[in-house]
């Protein structure tokens, strides 16, 4: 049978990985797909740089060029593989490919989280597939698992470490005491970070991925603009250490939770009990826990970024598209798991409505009555305390750190109580608030 022809847009970390994996495993992939998958053309900005990104054995047969549109318009190309990133040129090229009747495989989570509703509608209209396994959690087949493997379940919640760069930074800082900037530079060198690494550090990338996961889990449209996001840049060594003392690890988690009145969609540093497997997922590894009503909890873990782990997911999509090319579009698995005319109109809840446990760190004057005042304010707000720890003041210091863990409370009440506590004369500076998830049910 005639080989499937792929047009690669971009030949950086992921694009070069795709070419390497396709070349190395060509025989196995062909046996799985039912026909060979060949890269017909590659479009990049800098051809010399692209040629240097993979061994000669991989690049010598590839037709490199600068003209992205020519690839998308090439009548011989069956699948356009978008691996350039960004939301402007990538969007134009993907929509043009769809309009040309081509299937699309992309690793671009920003593009899908922001323009996914438009892109999937266009693909539905054109009867083509848009596949995006690599867009979430790198090499972990979490899209496939959620969209197909868990299709019997009503998903209650999911929570994941879905940004490799920030998990790598947190791990190196905790285990080796490394400096934030040094570890970030290492993550960039290893090809983990986004073109703009603030996307990794400030939670945007995780929120893009969470937006996609929530759409598939709950059958809702992509609503990135309603996701709450908070990154790891303000985390302090003290908080990481105090959390450890109390039996918790801090991870940047993306959490999507079904509530009676809507969906919680939030990314933030989160304390997780150290005994949970996900709390021990370190470095560039990602992990996603999914709670389904029938299956209970399932956990998916693997490399969340990097060249070949991500290429593994891209190539899986190329094989899937190849296998399904001749299937009637009506009978393909819907892009977002649910039939497009059956999406739910569930609101995304504002962060003030979130219900979870909290870690609060106060700096207090070491004098009688402080604890009584603080606990009274929490009690008045209906917030119940789970644990409390007071640190010894440093030599000659009169200010002590007090750490409080709460039971589940509504964020709005916690914020109101924090404002009242901060107004006490015996409290110095601002209170640090982190969210805590037990992930037990
Ligand atoms: P790179 O920066 O390593 O590669 C991008 C490639 O696209 C380069 O070949 C670059 O060419 C080309 N390119 C970018 N912009 C243009 C443009 N305007 N015109 C022509 N060519 C362009 O990125 P990655 O491979 O890391 O990422 C690609 C996509 O995959 C992104 O959407 C990213 O979010 C996603 N992703 C990345 C992962 C990773 O671990 N790196 C994991 C999962 C997803 P040139 O070098 O010549 O500029
Ligand atoms: N920058 C992303 C990360 C790449 O670090 O997770 C994988 O999507």
UniProtKB/TrEMBL annotation:
SUPFAM superfamilies linked to this entry: ACT-like (SSF55021), Glyceraldehyde-3-phosphate dehydrogenase-like, C-terminal domain (SSF55347), NAD(P)-binding Rossmann-fold domains (SSF51735)
Name the record gives this protein: Homoserine dehydrogenase
Positions annotated to bind NADP(+): 9-16
Annotated ACT domain residues: 359-441
Organism: Chitinimonas taiwanensis DSM 18899
InterPro entries cross-referenced by the UniProt entry: ACT-like_dom_sf, ACT_dom, Asp/hSer_DH_NAD-bd, HDH, HDH_cat, HDH_CS, NAD(P)-bd_dom_sf
Domain of life the protein comes from: Bacteria
Enzyme Commission identifier(s): 1.1.1.3
GO biological processes: methionine biosynthetic process; threonine biosynthetic process
Keywords: Amino-acid biosynthesis, Methionine biosynthesis, NADP, Oxidoreductase, Threonine biosynthesis
Pathways per UniProt: Amino-acid biosynthesis; L-threonine biosynthesis; L-threonine from L-aspartate: step 3/5; Amino-acid biosynthesis; L-methionine biosynthesis via de novo pathway; L-homoserine from L-aspartate: step 3/3
Binding site for L-homoserine: 194
Claim: Oxidoreductase is one of the keywords in the record: yes
Family according to the record: Belongs to the homoserine dehydrogenase family.
Enzyme's top EC category: oxidoreductase
Binding site for NADPH: 109
Active-site residues annotated for this sequence: 209
GO MF terms, alphabetically ordered: homoserine dehydrogenase activity; NADP binding
One Pfam family here: Homoserine_dh
